[in-house]
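Workshop exercise sheet. Pairs work together: one partner reads the sequence aloud, the other fills in the structure field after running the prediction. Swap roles for the next sheet.
Pair: D.N. / O.F.
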Amino acid sequence: MSAPLPVTAVAFLARASQLGLFSAETLILLDRGVATSAIGLVMAAAAVGGALAQLAASRWGHHGRTTRMTLLGTCVQSVGCLAFATLTPWWSLAAADFLLMAGAALTATGLRATLAAHAPGARAPGADQLERAYGRLTAAQMLGALVGPLGAGAVLLHGGTTWAAWAATAVALTATAVAGTADRRDRAPASHSGSRPSAPAPASASASASASASEKLPASALPEPSAGPPSALLGILWPPLVLLFGITALYGGYSVVWAVYLRELGARNALIAWSAACLALPALVLSPRAGAVLPRVSRQARIRVAALALGCCACLYPLVGSVAAAVAVSLAEGVLLAVALPLVSAQVARDAGPGRTARAFGLLGTADALGSGLGTALGGALLAQGGAAEAFRFSGVLCMLCAAASLISVPASSTRPPSSPPSVPSSPSSSETGRSPHVSRSSARIRPVRR
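Structure field:
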């Protein structure tokens, strides 16, 4: 099982656009006269947009194709980037950030659900296959996270902060074009199979024909079956949800503090934008092999250890006094993220099971957005009151507390996962009964007349 080319292409382009703009966002806001105390509010609006989009995906995501969700996300992200490039007041920039993050969240959920879907009737992918597939997806996203900030830094050197937003808009529109092409390809088999005229056929023949036609369609072209209430998944997915919440809360605080922190250490604007690539470079190399790290240790234990180490790294930043040392710590964090993020996605896909992947990844994205929102809001407040050091310490402690909270067992709902309807026992064949296939079973049996 491997990530299809359209999935990896959209993942790369969408993440390059998102993080290319985010790496220069604080500089853009400062150049447009936004007060330091309002920067956290602008970025908190992005987290709120991501949370609401993920809640919508967890509620209604299983009603449509996963490729349609991805296309919708790239469209909304493009609108947000365009608004960020053209608007000036801080409240309008907050609205643009809301749309940008909402679109990015829908895109990420659609990509994860598309990758988790396997062909109907086929065997579910194993743990190793899921880890490799999500490792490749994470590598594509991290490649975008590497190229986006590097491109933003190059644009900042030659064109200024406004051109960085325009470059992000162009990349997001390219991602929309690729997602639209993938959605049309998935829609084509469904339209062809539904438009063929056919003569009336017996009920059993039509049922078998429809079943065989559905098996030929791509899994992403089929809406997922009803998955029951979202609360049925919370008990099963609690450990990866709370772990991802802590990790994204950590980096939500970083999004506000990082540029100000490096500027206080004496870094230039281009170096600040390029420093965002330090997280992506190790993950780009190591993510496809995340499952091979300590294979005898359980997946959840590896994620917990990575989350604890990330929290410790955050607490080290206030003790660092040079840009080079800060970049070195950031590289170490990139290694930890390369291990944690693919394992989280693989754990959710395996625990949710078929038929509930869109809703499960919607819940995962909701935890992602809520953690990012909390970290952003509190990071902005702590930056305005106590400086970057207090924000780093708080984010690190919160991440470690979430790692400890993942050990708490949450009772799962009694709702059973969706299952296929009970199969009706097939009737004996005509060769077994000696009856002609043209005579129905309810017909009276004709006995030979004895003379």
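Discussion prompt: Residues 162 and 194 are 48 Å apart (CA to CA). What would you look at next?
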